[in-house]
Amino acid sequence: MIAIGNDHAAVELKEFVVALLQDMGYEVKDFGCGAGEKCDYPDKAKEVAEAIVGGECEKGILICGTGVGMSIAANKVKGIRAAVCSDEFSARMCAAHNNANILCFGQRVVGMGTAENLVRAWLGTEFEGGRHQGRVDKIMAIEE
Ligand code: RB5
To answer: Which residues of the chain have pLDDT under 70?
Structure first.
């Protein structure tokens, strides 16, 4: 199950990504706000992050105007490694090296084509473990 969240700045891209994920065969839980609603990105980031650390969802995608506010907020939740990306290489590497469990991006930054490439790259890449595991462990130890 993939959790998705968005604020009012990212309704259209959220709807595109939900359809994409479903086409890819994923189940999606949508925590985001819909057309005509207004909501604050920290609230949505917290809901999605808690769904992941609580085990309800495996990974999450958070979309706001830039992706930056969502990533800052989500990373406050213990157990979350949220990465804001606007290029495919970073989306692949944040899975391979950082084991990012949330991908963030911005509707005011990337178009639908790039968003699709980001999602496919991130979900299609496994964490490499090995030397990267120790570094991820060090990130998580900062939370203690
Ligand atoms: C909302 O206007 C905007 O600030 C928000 O979507 C996001 O870009 C914050 O990081």
So the answer is: none
